[in-house]
Amino acid sequence: MRKYFFIICFLLLSYSLTAATDSLRLGYSAKGTVVDAVTGGALESVLVSIPGRSHSTVTNADGFFVIKSDTPFEKVSFSHLGYHSEKLKAGGTMKVSLRPENLQLDAASIVMGDPEKIVWTAIDNIWYTYCTQPELLECFYRETLQKRRRYTYVAEAVARIYKSRFSGGGTSRDAAALEKSRLLVSQRSQDTLSIKTQGGPTMAIHMDLLKNTGILFTRSEMSQYEFQMLMPKYIGDRLQFVIKMSPRVIADYALYNCTLYIDRELLTFTRIEASVDMTDPVKATRMMLVKKPGSLRFTPLECSIVVNYRLEGNLSRLEYLRATMRFLCDWRKRLFKTDYTAINELVVTDVLPEASPIDRTQRFRTVDCLNDKAIEFTDPDFWADYNIIEPSETLEHAINRLRRSARKN
Fold it and tell me: pTM of this prediction?
């Protein structure tokens, strides 16, 4: 059976409660903003971490971050695609400027080779470079829906993800469980259309393309693509092969356009950007949509994913996921279509000391939806003791508006 990146189900939203675990008591923190040193523009999705520890997060759309720890720390590290990494002293409100990499290759560093062979070498190396021991990861997950530019739905969760040892057998033993979650839904009568994204934080399991190789990295699947070597780039201070993967055949289902980043020294994947080919809207719709009201017309615009992997020594582990879905909807007999943007985002914020499997009764299933389990936004300090992706200024305003609207109703 064809395995998909995304499954969306258009259903009515509902509320229920979920229990929260004990607070992590992360009493020490650093905060600030990360910008491009040349343009001064904010940098989004910069990896922010504490050297020598497992605590991490990423910057939001405004380049802002807060990172927390249970013990004092002196330094904070910053890493981003195409920029020099920085390790700076923590203190006050940090203003971090990252310098773009000025890629200068001498004759000995010229990137050559068969791009398809390099990709297959990286696939074979997953056996040696993916984390080889079971891990229990703590993750922050957020899903949002925008109607035009206005947010109508926000749901967030801290989840624990159990990752079994890589053995080539897929992800059947991996599992996720909620620690704490909350949601806000628009109360406006005209916002009748919303979404449920099946799987929620289990995206850290099913969209981990290195461990779940059956989605893309199989002989039969890869035979449908052509490969092109692009100009190399740096991630942090490590040079990357950059390889474009494009459909070369017409398949019965939608294929992907991909950009693969492969560490030049270790020949392991560090970043994968993939988007569903929108050439055939019918095929793209089948890829994205599970269910919708019969009178609703759906037009797909984008379905894409970014997956980052973090290198620790000679091994890599999942670091960050972002799925973006854009589409138009209109009810029959209406003249104008409305554009929607749904974004699901997950960052690994900690590696917990005991990699114990998650009990079956606590597991968040692939068919579950976060907005069936999350509680309503109430406490402004809900995430005080957790590392999260800080809401951007735009999202923060949206949360406040939705909260006020909920109180009135």
Answer: 0.89
